[in-house]
Hints:
The structure holds 2 protein chains of 2 kinds. Chain A is of the alpha/beta class. Helix content of chain A is 21%, strand content 29%. Chain A is built from 8 helices and 15 strands. Chain A has helices at 41-46, 88-95, 115-118, 132-144, 167-175, 221-233, 266-269, 275-278, and strands at 17-26, 31-38, 54-59, 63-68, 79-84, 101-108, 122-128, 152-158, 180-185, 195-196, 213-218, 241-244, 260-261, 264-265, 272-274. In chain A, the strands form 3 sheets. Chain A has a 7-stranded mixed beta sheet with strand order 10-9-8-7-11-12-15, with helices on both faces. Chain B is an alpha/beta fold. Chain B has 2 domains: 2-202, no CATH class; 210-341, no CATH class. Chain B has 12 helices and 13 strands. Chain B has helices spanning 8-21, 57-62, 96-109, 116-123, 170-179, 187-202, 210-221, 224-231, 239-242, 290-309, 319-323, 330-341; strands at 2-7, 23-29, 34-39, 52-53, 66-74, 78-82, 89-94, 125-130, 154-158, 162-167, 183-184, 250-256, 262-269. The radius of gyration of chain B is 22 Å and the shape is globular. Chains A and B meet through strand 4, helix 2 and strand 13 of A and strand 5, strand 6, helix 3, helix 4 and strand 12 of B.
Amino acid sequence: MVLEIKDTNKNNIYVPELAKINRIQQISPTEKLFDIVFDNKEKQNNFSFEPGQFVELTVFGLGEAPFSIASNPANKEFFQLCIRDIGNVSGALHRMKEGSKIGIRGPFGNGYFPYDKMRNHNVLLIAGGLGLAPLMSLIKYILHYREDYKEIMIIYGAVNPESILFKNDIQYFSDRSDISICVSVDNPDDKWTGEIGVCTKLIPRVDFPAKDTYVVVCGPPVMYKFVIIELEEKHYSPEKIFLSLERRMECGVGKCNHCHIGDKLVCVDGPVFSLWEIKNLKEAI
Amino acid sequence: MLYKVISRGVYNDFVKSLISDYELIGPKKKDKAVYDFVPIKDISELDTNYTKTTIPPAKKILFPSAEKLITYEINKTINIKSVIEGSQKVLFGINAWDINGMNFLDKFFTTDFVDENYVHRRKNLIVIGMDSEPTETNFSLSMGCEYAKDGFDLYLTELKDKYFIRVATAKGDEILSKYAETSNAKAEDFKEYNKYMDDYRLKFKLNVDIKNFYDNFELIYNDEEFWKRIAKNCYSCGSCNLVCPTCFCFNVKDDIELNLKDGNKIREWDSCMIPEYGLVAGGHNFRPDKENRLKQRYRCKLKTFLDKFGRYACVGCGRCIEACLAKINIAEDINSVKKEVSV
């Protein structure tokens, strides 16, 4: 075996690139949306990612965690991460101010939403809770090239009205006539006039024919099982159903092994998989 | 590969020269039957007649239990420095299965993304292999790992009054020629070597039917009762991971000094057997059951990497069998599959 050594710091796969939090928006009681710009202009200009890919974010002195990118890949000025205040790193991020420095590695993941194959097809997007974040990247991308796609429909489930993410974007999607969006909440308040209950029950209403429809799903682990049952009921092809999986990751580059499911590594083989790829992986869903 | 011999009388001087000119890591007796690979200052400390070492030598040198990956300094801006460590060392007396374990790690750390931290140490390591006696838990013959095809610079096999040496690299050739009087192996040397190897292989008493296990793995994968039975006594302590020459799982931690300015990213060995392994922020655990963790470990060792790299991620050293507090025995478990699937 030939062991290659390239003797520069750049080749250390664990070195993050310095970046700045340019803007922070509180978009729900527990989620904030962060606009991130690399300090190095060249790096910012060259930073490109696919919808569904993720980055490893370092809060210096505290730790590193993986986050899916939530912004439009066509946006070259900054990228966005939608982060829930729930862990060590995400909690620290929520306490940070605009202008703070963080470290970024990535983008990572060879499995992403196949927007190329989706062209000339209907696209059904199903999101539960924070699962909307990775899908936003894809939604914005396909809206950017709207004429390349047939019908687009978003089904989004949230716990309650105030936990609905990306409210402005959702309003914008609702106002457009070339995309339909259906939001359902588990616990409505007095003002809520929309759908009530888990988003899974909206699936039977979708009338996209199986043969020219792609489905993408992202949500909490418990959601997948039920969504898949509904999708199979409608005979959507497992090769055309894509799911983004969450796992613990320490490295993002296929070394630390924490995201192993069967023979797959979520970080390098995913995080987006077709249902066909993971159907037989017992722990996947 | 070159095949050379040195006479037995030359051996001591050869090793002494290596000790004086290099940082040499070799086996030293620690306890009654336990040996450890440590820096050797004098030839009297070196004991190549070892049978078992708890911590695999190559793994702890190339992939230490804790290592700095980067350092940084937080001021007005943040300066990040990559840490690539590793001076030239000689690893002396490592046996065939541990070399094969290292060969696995070589492949692993250079696939997809190249891990420079590992590669730098590996490049600076001169490996001189020697045979050691298998313990009763060693099944490396069945795993095809009792013999090292590559991964070393020199491999010394002790014959009656000489050492038969396989010279695998130019570096190895240079060292050997510099410090010892050698001659090319002749027909009778090869014959004596082959006879030795036949006898050597007879010492491996424990056999496993690994092919059967591999062929039937998918069949028993969903047999929950089987895995529950095997993992019944598991304490989820991770001893098996710590002593394994091929285990590579790690955590990355940020560590900051009390001045809140100087920080490091450190990686530490992790264990796939402990409950926190699959735990994510928010409290969801993707692998909460010990039987699923053990199943995943066996899959990783005995299937995943045969499919990926064409080699098992288990060399059959048997360390995990000896280390297990619950007496979980991978060799027995491999063989039990045959019984399980027979009709």
